[in-house]
Amino acid sequence: MLYRLARGILRLYFSLCRGWVVEGVENIPEEGELIVVANHSSYQDPLILGAAMTRPVNFMGKVELFRYPLFGSLLRLLGAFPVKRKAVDRAAIRHALAILAERKVLGMFPEGTRSKTGQLGEAQAGVVLLATKSGAPILPAGIKRGRGRGGVVIRFGKPFYLEAEGRERREAGKRIMAEIASLLS
Q1: Largest CB tally within 10 Å, which of 36, 53, 84, 145?
Q2: How far apart are CA 53 and CA 144, in angstroms?
Q3: Half-sphere exposure of 156 (CA within 13 A, CB side)
Q4: Please, which residues have CB within 8 angstroms of residue 144's CB and are 6 or more apart in sequence?
């Protein structure tokens, strides 16, 4: 209920104030487990991506965001959960796999941090691990901004599956980032 209300308010805001365009909505599966991945260059990205999706998204967010009691509680109410970056966070991995086992949507920014330059970096190992361990399809998304307060374009690509073991995981991460890059051009 709270998620749908927040999504409706955000859609109205982005439509009226930011002039957003959402493309490829038909590529979002209506049901089943799903990992949605996107580029990340602004604190607004989870809001933009969550508002553009047709299904609720459970975002993985850096643990620092959850240290503020009121804000952390709100994030949890909206389905987000903390992850310790630069460490193997087994609790976050278990939580993410549980979300996928419940046939819900997991939202991730594969680079693990915001890009200050707008250039895409390398995918962290976590997204590949979760995709291969769960068997969930990956839905790539590209968030492209205009200059200043210009419009925002969100493009969803076609879902795809990863099968990667050992050394193939690095290549799988490159594929994820290439899929996102193709949606930004």
Answers
A1: 36
A2: 16
A3: 24
A4: 152, 153, 154, 155, 184
Query: What pLDDT, on a 0 to 100 scale, did the predictor assign at position 148?
Result: 57
CA angle 104–39–69, rounded 5-degree value: 65
Q: How far is CA 89 from CA 38, 79, 93, 162, in A?
A: 21, 18, 6, 22
Q: Specify the CATH number of the domain 2-55+102-182.
A: 3.40.1130.10
Residue 148: DSSP 8-state? T
What distance in Å separates the CA atoms of residue 145 and residue 125, rounded to the nearest whole number? 27
pLDDT digits (tens, 9 = 90+) for 42-86: 888 999 999 999 999 999 999 999 999 999 999 998 999 999 987
Q: Taking Cα atoms as reference points, which of 88, 170, 176 lies closest to residue 139? A: 176
User: For residue range 147-179, what is the model confidence (pLDDT) as tens digits?
Assistant: 656 688 999 999 999 986 767 777 899 999 999
Question: pTM higher than 0.85 for the full model?
Answer: yes
